[in-house]
Automatic annotation (TrEMBL):
It catalyses: Hydrolysis of terminal, non-reducing alpha-D-galactose residues in alpha-D-galactosides, including galactose oligosaccharides, galactomannans and galactolipids. Residues 559-700 form the Glycosyl hydrolase family 98 putative carbohydrate-binding module domain. This is Alpha-galactosidase. Keywords: Disulfide bond, Glycosidase, Hydrolase, Signal. GO terms for molecular function: alpha-galactosidase activity.
Amino acid sequence: MMRNRGRPVAALVSSLALCWSFLAPPAAQAAPPPPPLAATPPMGFNNWNAFGCDVNETLIKETADAFVSTGLKDAGYRYVNIDDCWSLRERGPDGRLVPDPAKFPNGIKGVANYVHGKGLKLGIYGDAGTKTCAGYPGSLGHEELDARTWADWGVDYLKYDNCNNQSDGSQEDYIRRYTAMRQALDRTGRSIVYSICEWGTSRPWTWAKGIGHLWRTTGDISDNWASLRSIIRQNAPLAPYAGPGHWNDPDMMEIGNGGMTATEYRTHMSMWAMMAAPLIIGTDLRTASAETLAILGNRELIAIDQDRLGVQGAVVSDENGLMVLDKPLANGDRAIALYNSTDTLATVSVTTGETGLRDAGAYRLTDVWTGATTQVKSTISAAVPAHGTVVYRVRPLRDPTAVAPAVALGANLATLVPGPAGGDSTPTTAVPQPTDGGAPVAAVPDPTGGGTPTTTGPDPTAGGTLTTAVTNRGVGTLRDVAVTADVPEGWTATPVTPARRSRLATDATLETRWRIDVPASTPAGRYPIDLTASYRWGPRHRPATTSSQVIATVVTAPEDGRRHLSTISPVTSVNATGPLEPDQSNGGALENDGNLITIGGQVHTRGLGTTTGSELLYYLGGRCSRLVTDVGIDDEAPGGPATFTVYADDAVAAASGPVTSGEAPKPLTADLTGTAWLRLVAESETTGTHADWASPVLTCGDVPDDSPVLPESRTLFSFESGTEDFTIANPGDGGTVAQSPLFHTEGTNGLKVSTPVAGNWFGRPLATPLDLTGATMLKFDLKAGDAGTVGEIAVQVGEAFSWCQGGLWTWTNAHSSRTITERFDQISCPTGITLDRSDIRAVWVFLNTGGEVFIDNIRAE
Ligand code: GLA
């Protein structure tokens, strides 16, 4: 999405805002009090996720029409909300905000009338700072007038953002700025839902009840799985803070925008409903598919979200990426969600005693996605696909005999290596086979061994092992139980232990081990295996089946060449704190929350950030010869001492010995000739020390020692000879640049930039066009000063110096550092212009903060 942050100011169009006052008819009797606002989580639409700044009257009106025609209005969706970029860049002569007449020819009032005419409500966007995030006028210091203006226009909902906030960062300041608008809204006398959007920065759940009706709890969502998973992680534990009129807001939905699978979008809807989250649609409803509309319009989930008790589902358990939520409902039922955030099929279970369900001999489960009804005795359990969520509406059941029993069909599957099982007919290493959820089990060294080398080596030519588990959770014994595995063509699945059982009692499991063989020519990738359990149930021996799909991961060795190890995905990774972080330090519990890897003051832009207690496993298939790396404890969090060990299969190929904090990076070289599996292990007495593998390079195949390290990168500006003519795009907005040795990731110097609060572009037009043919992305390294900053890259192309800019910007916290990346395919140019990579005329980076920021090594990769 295009953000015009800091672009040259548009011509000022003055317009006289119409004054409109609401004259209430004299009341004969006291009117009944209006229903409380946001008594259940608000439901509606906002244009930002799908359209960014590209908002206008037609879109809003057509969306209102779509609410009606798609049935979403009937399903409960009410608010049609306008996000950033609706106004002119300057206030009017009377100080009021002015709707951009090109986007809203009938003003906001015109569009409000239209939306109201459909029985719907209208929302607007403002900012508790000097400018909005996209650089339009903010409301800080203008609260009274702006609230009055919006009320005059007939606005029913305000999303109030936090950019350019002039804040000292204290919670008091957040409370002050957001309360100022609360009071201004109150004084208008109009009922306006107040949505606080400060990204969870000041922990609004601790103070915003009674001020806002909802508050964002996280940074911006984006349309990908990592973002969704991370937001659920952050929002779920905040359940105690939500209730009628005061909701946690994990951000607007991405359902339908194309970046996730249907399974992931169903998880999105399921978890938003379980978390009593506002349901604000973020996709183009005029073109939404039937599948998207069915997800957004799921009545069962909407009923769970909108339940009048208004309780956010509590986290009952959260282990190994499997989470169970329990939400009480007004009619006495409970909604139970089984959420699997792992990358593999997993069985997620909870006993009824762990939930708020009252004691009963049996329970009835209604699956909100399939509508299927089953019964359980005392454990609610399902095999949930990777990234999937099963939601049941549950209530006690008196007579279970007429209801089908719930049967879970779980599976664990080894990582598979293509090749004949020939020469070795023994099954692969026997590994413990949990029947319930848990981490993927691979027929490779056990990655959960906490760094202890395993004694049985993997067999790279032996396919892998599948374990299936059929569990009867219902009241009553199952008969004639049989399980089958349907593998891709050319593969074979052979049961090694029995795949049938004549009787299966309540809570008993039929566990079967299978040997899977994969043809040698099979490319690396993910392949579905369909599992089916058939059985008979009840006094009349009725036949039934349960099926699951498990995804097989086939691994192959890396391609020839010298390559940054951080660009190769490990087969498995175990890390003590949060995920393994490629090309940054470990940071903390969240994904992508580290800094540039820094050891003894030396910065590395490539590497793997882990914490001790970590083990990374790579499949090499005997095709690689060497790993060269530096290791050390990251300066961001002194700790240790730690040890780093490289295992080639089960043998130690390189070991650091104890490494202490502040020490210079230690070089290691490991000979990997003939190695099938490479394991990197970092350990310390107590886990959690920030341990870095800095600039690791893996050599595979027969390549010269001096061949370039892939992916190749080309430095455009490294500031070794000065500022390299860097200038400021909008001189009127301010900022300075100077060469500085204080931060550098290339050579010995970088650039110190002082930025205006609302930001500016820093860079330069080029005398000769740059040819970046073949490059796929632009990058630069950044270190933020006291206040943090936003980083983004734009280019100008062609003779007309057309401005092309990406939608992606990265917020960097105070005093942290990172590489800012912008892929060429995410950069968009003005209509009619193509981004010709061979004709780059200028390169600009965007920075803001009102303080010092350091950058270096602007490069193409
Ligand atoms: C911030 C908000 C987003 C969106 C944009 C608009 O990033 O968090 O939801 O409103 O600003 O510029």
